[in-house]
Each structure stands twice: as structure tokens, then as C-alpha cells.
Amino acid sequence: MQTSALPDLAHTATKPVHWLATAAAMAAVVALAGLPQPRTATATATAPEKRTTTPVAAPDPAEVDFPLECGGAGTTVAKQAPGDLDGDGRPETVAVVHCDAGSGTPPSGIYVLTQGSGAAPRVVATLVDPADRKTVTDFVVREGRVSATLLGYSSLEVPRCCPDQEEQASWRYQGKAFVRTTGDLARAV
Question: How far apart are CA 92 and CA 88, in angstroms?
Fold first, then answer.
């Protein structure tokens, strides 16, 4: 360390009085900082606001007349799944429905149901029409997408018990219609 050629200055030699003065000044600052207090609150407590955050129920397929020609046999909702497909915050129901044939493998339809406030549920889209003679398996609704495995027949000679074709299909609502990612079976009602 290099020594200074200048004489020691008086203010560089601290004495106990300097430490006491610094401590007193700091105590005064802390004491003054604690003096201002917020005004006393004058608001009165009231009951919390009631918000209607009751979840909206998805449409019930049991309340819908599906566009199936079953010759008086009735219909069977084989599978169903709710999901908000159009992003409006209200759930739709996607239902896999076929005629109640009693035996065999009747073709399935995939229908999208919606329900307005106080209205009855109704079919708004047909994703797979039973006229296309497809059987639906591995059906799921997730993150706004409907996905299914479709089983079908390559010709009329193939027995109706044993489909010989399989395809993966999925649909997503875009704009004002459901768009299928493979094939061209998606239809709007």
C-alpha cells in the first residue's frame, strides 16, 4: 500500500462520539418512518357477491331424436363424450349411435349435440352417417377434437360380422363446420 504524502485529515479519524451521532441519527430516521399510519378503514363488511359459476351440463343424448332409419327398432347410444368443441365455454356431446338391431353389427353414426339455454338438445352435425356403413370403435373427445377408429367393408361379399377395413379419423370445429383430417365423410346437418 502506498502512503499518502498529505497529512492525515481530521475527518478521517473516527472517535466514539462520531459513532454515537450516527447511531442517534439512524434511530431518529427509523422512528420517524414509523409515525405515519394509514387512515382507519371506514368500509363496512357486506356479503360476498354471488357468482353463478355452476358448470353447464352437456346435452343428454337420451333426449334427442337421431336422424336414423331403424324401421321401428329404436336407437342405441353406444358411446358418448362431452367436450367444448367450438370454444364457446359450453360443452357439446358427441354420441355414437346405431339402430338397436339385437344382433349383428349395425352401422354407426357419430352425431354432435348442442343445447341452448332452456332448449331441448339437438343434433347440429353428423360426422359419420350410418349410410356410410361404418362401425365406430376407439372413440374419444379430447381438447376440442373428436377421434375414432372406423371399421368398414371392402365389398358387399364381406360378411357383416367381420369388417375388413380400418381407418383413423378425427374432426375439429373450424369456422362454422367440422373438418375431418382424413377422408370426406364429415357432413353438417
Answer: 10
